[in-house]
Prior knowledge:
9-stranded mixed beta sheet, two-stranded antiparallel sheet, Spore Coat Polysaccharide Biosynthesis Protein SpsA, Chain A, 13 strands, binds uridine 5'-triphosphate, 34% helix, alpha/beta
Amino acid sequence: MKPIRKAVFPVGGLGTRFLPATKALPKEMLPVVDKPLIEYAVEEAREAGIEEFVFVTSRGKTAIQNHFDSHLELESALRAKGRDTELSAITNAVGSPGQFAYVRQMEPLGLGHAVWTARNFIGNEPFAVLLADDLIGGSSSTLADMAEIHAEHGGNVIALMEVPPADTARYGVVAPGDDDGRVVEVLDLVEKPDPADAPSNLAIVGRYILLPEVLDFLALGEKGAGGEIQLTDSMARLIGGAPFNGMRLRGTRYDCGTKIGFLEANVALALERDDLGGDVRTRLQKVLDDHRRDG
Ligand code: UTP
């Protein structure tokens, strides 16, 4: 089995749930503690051995391009001041020339459409898709774990997590087959089912390893839930033609596309940091105490 070399980062969405913050700032550039969401996803992909990165962008997303580019003036200012920590913090993100590519989606027609927009870059090999607003905490790279499952079983691999049954209408949901507690055979996929119709409470998290055949189905441009071209619908059509497995997440997933998930991620990741954790704990406690007194 060949390693996965290419990853697609769909960043073409409007981010309406985060307005007004996302009026002029891409949602994927919102910082969790001190690093933009998109950089967490790129780091996870790098740890999984990804060599080529394509971002599916839209108007107003140039801050993402600038973030992964060199900033020679800032670098030399930091170097002159001996600010090595900050220097490596800004150079770590930068790829080598040609390693990062950007394509414009032109219209936000849905996640499936965004992935299809990257087709010329993907070519005819299995590829990864990472949604930066799904931030996954934990020590290992989720995509690297999925790549291991792909190497063992071949075919398609998606990340899964259990959600409260009442919440299925917010997710793509799988009909599970064989399940060893970690790798779950996927028998069917449904986008945003009502709880009464949901085949399980195992929901798709924004990490995918897909065979290039999915692009043929996406090319049909069929609209699904919410009138959008859904990735889930085309993935469902791959089932039966090749292995299709889900991997239960080990780490915690923070839904940074929502305000509450984003706030939770900031608190959780700050608490884990050696340089911040103690202070954050003390100040959070003070905020809670003050509110309790006021309330
Ligand atoms: P979301 O469903 O979170 O949509 O997309 P959104 O537009 O970003 O945010 P809201 O719902 O308006 O608040 C999940 C991921 O798919 C990308 C988004 O950028 C996000 O990373 N996406 C979505 C696209 O690239 N293009 C699309 O047409 C839709």
